[in-house]
Amino acid sequence: MALTSGTTLGPYEIIAPLGAGGMGEVYRARDTRLQRTVAIKLLPSQYALDPERVRRFEQEARASAALNHPNIVAVYDVGTQADSFYLVSELLEGESLRHRLAGGALPTRKAMEYSAQIAAGLAAAHDKGIVHRDLKPENIFITREGRVKILDFGLAKLAPPLPDAGTIAEDGLKTEAGVLLGTMGYMSPEQVRGGAVDHRSDLFSFGAVFYEMLTGQRAFRGATPADTVSAILKEDPPELSATGREVSPALERTVRHCLEKNPEERFQSARDLAFDLQNISGASSQSEAVAAAVKKARVRPLRVPVIVAATAVVLAAVFWAGWWLKPTTSSSFRQLTFRRGNVTAAHFAPDGHNVIYSAAWEDSLHPEVFTTRTDGVLSRSLEVKDADVLSVSPQGEMALLEHWRRTIGWQRSGMLARMEISGGASREILDGVQDADWSPDGANLAVARAIPPYAVEFPIGHALTHAPPGGWVSDVRIAPDQQHVAYIEHPSVGDDRGNVCVVDRQGQRRLLSSGWSSLRGVAWSTSGKEIWFTGTNTGGNRELYAVDSSGRLRPLLNVPGLLLYDIARDGRVLLAEDSLRREITGLTPGSSQERNLTWLDWSRERALTPDGQWLLFDEQSEGGGPNYSIYVRKTDGSPAFRVGDNDAFSMTADGKWVLATTSAEGGSLVLMPTGAGEARAIKTGKLQNVLGFFLPGEKRILAYTGDGQAYVQSLDGGSPRAITPPGARAYFGIHTADGKYVLARDAQQKWMLYPVDQGQPVPLPNWPAGDEPIGNATDNHSFFVRNGDLPVDIYRFDFVSGTRKFVRQLRPSDTTGLERINGVLITPDGRYYVYGGTRETSSLFVVSGLK
To answer: What is the CATH number of the domain that holds 518?
Structure first.
């Protein structure tokens, strides 16, 4: 049905039609809740009448919504109204690649630029197990700013069946096995055969699109659809050079590699393809610059002195172009690890030909130390379990972090030990360490302390600098001159946002680069004049940068998802290709099995209503943006909706209000509605950067500062009043069922109940060792507690009687890449729960040619 201006679909008001096609009509609309312009695709009514098709569409829409990446169109919402099913996405301004190709082939530089963005988008999707299946110029959009957006991820499953079995059409192919999804001319051989399709099929389609961008001609197009199928299965498209296009042999090889008939002979991942394009782009930019300088030498015949002078200028230009555009060879990548899991640390051995690394493969919960050669593919275990290799001295001695565990967020703590690469027992040095590094002469170690006060020490015991209040430090690296230590300063406890800093032996600190949304991995350049690091300004897809002592920043490798580990004396770099995702799982009302409640790429559980019906969470990576985003969703699997910026830790029992943090001047908390209503700032006096939790009755709140001190405050105003004394650390949001006592540890680490109003603190001497509180039970004398990292055992602990009763065990079915279950939320009756964990998988590469 056609919609007129002013028609509403849920909270969306139709403005004007944008177009129509086989998959439905598209409209420009206004989101009246968030006051933004969006695009709405209204599916044909016959789709809405098919429950199975609607169910599949909802699944695919949710999958698309999880693909929050700059090169994939953002899906905001799905909904139904009057038997109409619609999808809400970002509104794009620009044109499709098909429209752009109407004028013929693209300039090589533009084709390379667009292809790199397409590869990046595909890599992000494939990382989440989502295959497009219908990549073609019509599904690639170029915005006015030159940004590539891939459209309709996962929606090809909605393609309508063809009328006659066995007929062939330009839009698809139907066989006895059913409908094959894709568009003729861009389908892979396995698609047209009706075989199994995986991410490598998208890489074939990418090759066909790339070929068309470079030549202006389709790679596969016969006189009839059957001829097109035959060409895909049996023929190779003409050489790029045969089309009259001058391209480099490297570019020709890349396109051919994508268009291999056998999936095993293609690129095996979109990230490998992105690396290859990066190499070619680096080489071609240099040759184009030199060619431009040479082109200026083509002058008309003039007097001999003028010609000589012009020639000298051109030669000088060519010389200086070659000088400034070094390296003359592009960077190259060699993969060192091939198993599924997570590389947690890596360093070059003193000989430069071997790499010592730590990894947790497959279902291993803790890392093990391995060695491999830079020119090999096999790894050998050093039989060192549950340890990270933090650094390797020139004498071949490893600095290990043994038995480390996450303490909060990205922070960890473990035992620093030293051990020879050749073998033998390790020797313990210092407990409570976050990170460490050997000095270039192998005589001393620098450490980042994992316990307050967080400090950078070099040598051990001599503090050069401390973390800012409420923050922590990591990634210490000693300069070649041994007079400076680079490190990352994190302003907020547990958060990987941070600044690149350097401190000298006299304790003089300099901030070199600040404001990074995610910052991990630091190393000194071979010259000692720059600090290289991996970071990003938004989300968690880090890229490689360099910064010098003056703070001058330059990009080195703009491939997202990197983690820097080490730089060899000859300039080779150890990098991990890193994929991070935080997931939420839970048992909720109406389900007998756990369901996945993850929304975007970094879903962090914050609060669960007492009936288990509503979940408060925030998104802290690409999807969440630089300031994070607050979301609420029903736990029946209904779509989530965004409440606002920053993060929130508490929600009213009816799910209508959340208590969020804000950076607004004069206040640090804000009461935000999840539906109708106005947000209201909650003044917290001199307290800054506090976390807020509702007390029962929801008239007062608990406010917690970064040092763990708890305060109580009325929602109606007034000054916050301290509940716990200085030195005690309260557990955020943990109180008795009636809200009269908060749980904390005093300065001597003894468990205590501190009264919210009047009275004396109550000691809890029978608290079981290793148990952490996760919530209160329905009575006033029990807490739910957890024990263990993975799996996690849940108990109900009665602190009056001292008895402890087992409730359940939490263990995800797939533990690959999981270090631990981070947070657990449980309803007071113990029936429902959600838990979250960070899944990190990576592969290790050695990279040459970066300068």
So the answer is: 2.120.10.30
Please write the tens of the pLDDT for every residue from 173-195: 333 333 344 577 899 998 888 87
Q: Which residues of the chain have pLDDT under 50?
A: 156-181, 283-329, 664-666
How many CA atoms lie less than 13 Å away from 348 in the CB half-sphere? Answer: 22
Question: Contact, 159 vs 172, CB < 8 A?
Answer: yes
Segment 659-712, tens digit of pLDDT: 998 754 445 788 999 988 888 888 888 887 788 999 999 999 999 987 789 999
pLDDT at 614: 96
3-state secondary structure of 169: strand
839 closest CA partner among 443, 296, 182, 360: 360
* Contact by Cβ (8 Å): 232, 195: no
For residue 384, give its domain range.
Answer: 338-575
Whether 203 contacts 222, CB under 8 Å: no
- The answer to whether 592 and 603 have CB atoms below 8 angstroms apart is no
Q: Above pLDDT 70, what percent of the chain?
A: 86
Tell me how many degrees the CA angle 96-98-104 measures, rounded to the nearest 5.
Answer: 125
Q: What is the pLDDT of residue 364?
A: 86
- How many CA atoms are closer than 13 Å to the CA of 50, on its beta-carbon side? 13
Same domain, 105 and 44: no
- The single residue listed with the structure tokens 């001597």 is 748
Question: Cβ(83)–Cβ(93) under 8 Å?
Answer: no
Give residue 37's Cα distance to chain centre: 26
For residue 692, give the H/E element and its range.
strand 691-694
Q: 218 and 358 share a domain?
A: no
Neighbours of 851 (CB within 10 A): 10
459 closest CA partner among 432, 434, 478: 478
Name 820's Cβ contacts closer than 8 Å, sequence gap at least 6.
Answer: 365, 405, 406, 789, 790, 837
**DSSP result, 446-496:** EEEESSSSPEEESSTT-EEEEPPTT-EEEEEEE-TTSSEEEEEEESSTT--
Total domains present in the chain: 3
Give the Cα separation of 725 and 745 in Å (integer): 10
CA separation for the pair 310, 458 (Å, rounded): 57
What tokens were used for 448? 């980042």
What pLDDT is recorded for position 182? 54
**Listed residues 543, 575, 607: the one ending a domain:** 575
Asked if 405 and 484 sit in the same domain, the reply is yes
Do the domain assignments include residue 571?
yes
| DSSP structure class, residue 265 | G
Tell me which of 295, 326, 350 is where a domain ends.
295
Give CA–CA dist 746/753, Å, rounded: 10
Question: What Cα–Cα distance (Å) separates residue 221 from each residue in 226, 230, 231, 577?
Answer: 10, 10, 7, 37
> Cα(619)–Cα(732) distance, rounded to whole angstroms?
20
Which pLDDT value is given to residue 67?
72
> Which residue type occupies 393?
S
**What DSSP designation does 137 have?**
G
Whole-angstrom distance, CA of residue 228 vs CA of residue 230: 5
Is the Cβ–Cβ distance between 363 and 816 less than 8 Å? Answer: yes
Q: Give CA–CA dist 413/496, Å, rounded.
A: 15
Return the residue matching tokens 């964990």.
837
Q: 379 — phi, psi (to 5°)?
A: -115, 150
The residues that bridge with 798 in the sheet, in sequence order, are 782, 803
pLDDT tens readout for residues 97-109:
999 998 889 988 8
Let me know: does 794 contact 809? Beta carbons within 8 Å.
Answer: yes
Q: What angle do CA 590, 587, 647 make, to 5 degrees?
A: 110
Q: Measured in Å, how far apart are the chain's first and last C-alpha atoms?
A: 58
- Position 819 scores a pLDDT of 82
Residue 249 amino acid letter: P
β-bridge partners, 332: 848
My answer on whether 83 and 122 are in the same domain is no
The closest of 422, 429, 418 to 349, measured between CA atoms, is: 422
